[in-house]
């Protein structure tokens, strides 16, 4: 059965068009403790939250060049939580002075039959990985410090192998389209983390092989 | 080289030590290697001291050599080896020694020549005779000069010391600022922006969503005069708070009962500062309190406008007025006083301490903080991590296909204003109930009414146990026991016999109910007393349908007969009509006996005949049951 044609209509999630503002950076394993302490002090006063997630990336290859990518993620530490399906669009090419990466984002909560559903729809799993680390929040900003691990046997999340000796740090905000003041707050927050980790906007398309 | 067997090659290191002799059994004796000092001696021997930089000294080498050399050179002098190894470490030594040798040889030769007195003679050098005596003036001048240099040195040192002391004092003042800053930082959030130090006194990091920035600035207190004495509470650090957070604030709750006297005029006493707290701490705490009060009031007024209720709430500037009960008005106002205006607010009457208002204000603060805490609870954090923030259960709404009713039930449905109005209603209802019971208890002595309030209450529910008893007969007549559960708008009464009655907030209803219970109690008491006294209960009714209609409740009646059956007492008691007691006599005791042919036998005269009313008010006895007991005793003849 040939793959159905991928539509080129813009993807929206309902009435409101949500954009994700993103800044990324990384730290070595040795610097993790000091980074966590600093984040604990800067962010909202909560108990530190750890997570273990398993993400599967699905591709739908159409006749055109660019495949359609959907990310399905489930929590391994909270098995009863629903799955989370995410679509991330192309980064918006706005003015260069914008400090964060802005892209269209659609988030959907899904039940546990999501992988089978995606397979039936024609998506094929491209790769999967396990991510575990810590989560912080400050107002609307979410800071995630995570370590990515590769899954050696497909489907088996216990047997994983670390991909690198460092942790990925991501600062993200979900806001409706048109609100640009969030990037200023993100930039000032990133300044406060400055010598420990440098958060900057990394264009994913420039890193494609 | 794949083919052929492997060739064994054995390697032996070369012999480093010389073989002295080989014994008959093959053992080899080695020459022991030279020690360090021996090695040094061997090397030094190789140095040829005769090969110096000047070649004409070679002639003098002979005898003075052994005399001058014994000390510096411990080894033998005659072995001069032709072969000279690297002279570089010893070159300078050798040259110095050679020049010293030359000088000594010259001196020796001169002395030996002078000894002969033939070719050289020594001539003394003439001395200046005037150099012996040093004049006083010269001594004085030299002493003055030396003292002058010493004094200058001392003065320079003293100047340095005094400069360092002054610097120390300045440093101490600077360090005071820094130590104050450290203390400030241990309690408040500070950050450095450019060359200014800013702080955050808002509740945003604790979960508040109020849009006020809450930023204060830390300043160095430089207007201090070094000459004057430092004041007691001098602090090198000063904070500047935003102007709209100046002063102090509180939320005033007033509930004047219409028809009731007295509004309470509260003014807030300045909080007692603990010894040792700095002025900046007091200032910052007051500003934070003002901010919290503003946030609470903003939330309340927002809800007052949005929420639809039967009687709309009125929001006027700093006050929210609502009517929880008809006839009761609740006003919540934000009182923000900036220091100067305090004197004008002194009220002429003394402030009446009213607990309710403080409790409600405290509850408001508590509810606000709980709202903040909910914003930060880990229920909001997403699992998996890429999901957006939001309540855990709302995330299930999609996958579980909740409908509108289910989603509505998940969301917070009660706001701050509703909660506080409910609490105010409950407090008001409770105080009204207590007042009703107390007024009845003080007004009516027979029967007695007792109220036992439970210690453990809820913000929306309290309970009280009401007992109606007669004095002296508590063990006998305890049939009326009521449990009142005071809720937000209603009072639920549970009777001992299982009946449940729901009363509204009206004061009159409770009073009427209690009055009717009291009248029932009297009749129940007669019934219990009859059992004790041995009288038989002939009839008993809680609600008689005969006689005048009562406006409150119903009248109850009982009829009891004496043990021998001769007398009967009938009691009818109503809440309004009071009690009526009738005694039935046997026929034989009546004055006029109706003569009739029907009754033939005399035994019929023992039956009970007409009844007579008792003047109850003239009866002896302090309460109803006592009087009843006396009556029963009087009607029971002694055997």
Automatic annotation (TrEMBL), chain A:
Keywords: Activator, Nucleus, Transcription, Transcription regulation. GO terms for molecular function: transcription coregulator activity. Belongs to the Mediator complex subunit 18 family. It comes from the Eukaryota. Its main location: nucleus. It comes from Liparis tanakae. Component of the Mediator complex. Transmembrane segments: none annotated. The gene is med18. Component of the Mediator complex, a coactivator involved in the regulated transcription of nearly all RNA polymerase II-dependent genes. Mediator functions as a bridge to convey information from gene-specific regulatory proteins to the basal RNA polymerase II transcription machinery. Mediator is recruited to promoters by direct interactions with regulatory proteins and serves as a scaffold for the assembly of a functional preinitiation complex with RNA polymerase II and the general transcription factors. The keyword Transferase does not apply. GO terms for biological process: regulation of transcription by RNA polymerase II; termination of RNA polymerase II transcription. InterPro entries: Mediator_Med18 (IPR019095). This is Mediator of RNA polymerase II transcription subunit 18. It is found in: Nucleus. One of its GO terms (cellular component) is core mediator complex.
Automatic annotation (TrEMBL), chain B:
The lineage of its organism: Eukaryota, Metazoa, Chordata, Craniata, Vertebrata. One of its GO terms (cellular component) is mediator complex. Keywords: Activator, Nucleus, Transcription, Transcription regulation. Component of the Mediator complex, a coactivator involved in the regulated transcription of nearly all RNA polymerase II-dependent genes. Mediator functions as a bridge to convey information from gene-specific regulatory proteins to the basal RNA polymerase II transcription machinery. Mediator is recruited to promoters by direct interactions with regulatory proteins and serves as a scaffold for the assembly of a functional preinitiation complex with RNA polymerase II and the general transcription factors. Residues 48-82 are annotated as: Disordered. It comes from the Eukaryota. Residues 62-73 have a biased composition (Basic and acidic residues). This is Mediator of RNA polymerase II transcription subunit 17. The keyword Metal-binding does not apply. Component of the Mediator complex. Pfam families: Med17 (PF10156). Its main location: nucleus. Belongs to the Mediator complex subunit 17 family. It comes from Liparis tanakae. InterPro entries: Mediator_Med17. The gene is med17. It is found in: Nucleus. One of its GO terms (biological process) is regulation of transcription by RNA polymerase II. One of its GO terms (molecular function) is transcription coregulator activity.
């Amino acid at each position: 059965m040939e793959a159905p044609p991928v539509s080129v209509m813009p993807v929206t999630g309902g009435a409101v068009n949500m954009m994700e503002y993103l800044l990324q950076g990384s730290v070595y394993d040795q610097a993790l403790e000091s980074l966590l302490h600093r984040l604990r002090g800067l962010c909202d006063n909560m108990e530190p939250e750890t997570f273990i997630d398993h993400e599967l990336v699905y591709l739908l290859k159409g006749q055109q060049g660019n495949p359609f990518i959907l990310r399905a993620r489930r929590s391994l530490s909270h098995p009863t939580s629903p799955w989370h399906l995410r679509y991330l669009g192309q980064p918006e090419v706005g003015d260069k002075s914008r400090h964060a990466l802005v892209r269209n984002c659609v988030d959907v909560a899904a039940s546990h039959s999501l992988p089978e559903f995606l397979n039936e729809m024609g998506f094929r799993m491209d790769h999967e990985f396990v991510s575990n680390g810590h989560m912080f929040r400050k107002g609307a900003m979410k800071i995630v410090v995570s370590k990515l691990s590769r899954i050696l046997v497909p489907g088996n999340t216990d047997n994983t192998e670390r991909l690198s000796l460092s942790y990925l740090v991501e600062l993200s905000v979900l806001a409706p389209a048109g609100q640009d003041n969030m990037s200023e707050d993100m930039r000032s927050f990133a300044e406060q983390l400055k010598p420990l980790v440098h958060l900057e906007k990394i264009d994913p398309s420039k890193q494609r092989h | 080289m794949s083919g052929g067997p492997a060739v064994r090659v054995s390697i032996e290191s070369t012999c480093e030590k010389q073989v002295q002799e080989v014994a008959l059994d093959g053992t080899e004796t080695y020459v022991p290697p030279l020690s360090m000092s021996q090695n040094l001696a061997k090397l030094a021997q190789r140095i040829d001291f005769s090969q110096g930089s000047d070649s004409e000294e070679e002639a003098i080498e002979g005898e003075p050599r052994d005399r001058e050399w014994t000390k510096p050179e411990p080894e033998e002098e005659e072995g001069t080896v032709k072969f000279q190894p690297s002279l570089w470490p010893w070159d300078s030594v050798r040259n110095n020694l050679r020049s010293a040798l030359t000088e000594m040889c010259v001196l020796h030769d001169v002395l030996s020549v002078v000894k002969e007195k033939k070719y050289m003679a020594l001539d003394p050098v003439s001395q200046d005779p005037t150099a012996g005596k040093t004049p006083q003036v010269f001594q004085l001048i030299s002493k003055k000069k030396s003292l002058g240099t010493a004094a200058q040195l001392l003065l320079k040192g003293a100047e340095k010391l005094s400069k360092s002391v002054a610097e120390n004092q300045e440093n101490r003042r600077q360090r005071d600022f820094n130590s104050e800053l450290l203390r400030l930082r241990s309690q408040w959030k500070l950050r450095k922006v450019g060359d200014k130090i800013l702080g955050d006194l808002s509740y945003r990091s604790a979960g508040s969503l109020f849009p006020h920035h809450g930023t204060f600035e830390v300043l160095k207190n430089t207007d201090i005069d070094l000459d004057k004495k430092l004041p007691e509470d001098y602090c090198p650090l000063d904070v500047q708070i935003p102007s709209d957070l100046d002063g102090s604030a509180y939320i005033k709750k007033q509930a004047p009962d219409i028809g009731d006297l007295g509004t309470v005029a509260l003014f807030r006493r300045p909080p007692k500062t603990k010894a040792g707290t700095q002025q900046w701490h007091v200032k910052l705490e007051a500003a934070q309190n003002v901010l919290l009060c503003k946030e609470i009031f903003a939330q309340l007024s927002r809800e007052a406008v949005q929420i639809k209720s039967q009687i709309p709430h009125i929001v006027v500037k700093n006050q929210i007025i609502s009517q929880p009960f008809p006839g009761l008005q609740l006003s919540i106002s934000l009182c923000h006083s900036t220091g100067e205006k305090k004197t004008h607010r002194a009220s002429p009457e003394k402030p009446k301490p009213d607990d309710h208002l403080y409790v409600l204000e405290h509850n408001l603060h508590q509810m606000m903080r709980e709202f903040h805490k909910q914003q930060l609870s880990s229920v909001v954090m997403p699992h998996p991590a890429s999901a957006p923030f939001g309540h855990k259960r709302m995330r299930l709404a999609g996958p579980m296909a909740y409908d509108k009713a289910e989603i509505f039930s998940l969301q917070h449905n009660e706001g701050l204003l509703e909660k506080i109005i409910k609490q105010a209603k409950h407090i008001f209802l409770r105080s009204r109930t207590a007042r009703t019971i107390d007024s009845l208890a003080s007004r009516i002595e027979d029967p007695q009414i007792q109220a036992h309030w439970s210690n453990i209450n809820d913000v929306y529910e309290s309970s009280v146990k009401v007992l109606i008893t007669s004095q002296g007969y508590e063990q006998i007549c305890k049939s009326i026991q009521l449990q009142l559960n005071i809720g937000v708008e209603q009072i639920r009464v549970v009777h001992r016999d299982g009946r449940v009655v729901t009363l509204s907030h009206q004061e009159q209803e409770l009073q009427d109910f209690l009055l009717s219970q009291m009248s029932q109690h009297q009749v129940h008491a007669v019934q219990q007393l009859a059992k004790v006294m041995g009288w038989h209960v002939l009839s008993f009714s809680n609600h008689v349908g005969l006689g005048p209609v009562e406006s409150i409740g119903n009248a109850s009646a009982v009829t009891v007969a004496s043990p021998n059956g001769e007398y009967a007492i009938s009691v009818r008691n109503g809440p309004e009509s009071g009690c009526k007691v009738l005694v039935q006599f046997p026929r034989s005791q009546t004055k006029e006996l109706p003569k009739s042919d029907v009754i033939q036998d005399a035994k019929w005269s023992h039956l009970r005949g007409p009844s007579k009313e008792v003047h109850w008010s003239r009866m002896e006895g302090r309460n109803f049951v006592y009087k009843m007991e006396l009556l029963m005793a009087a009607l029971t003849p002694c055997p």
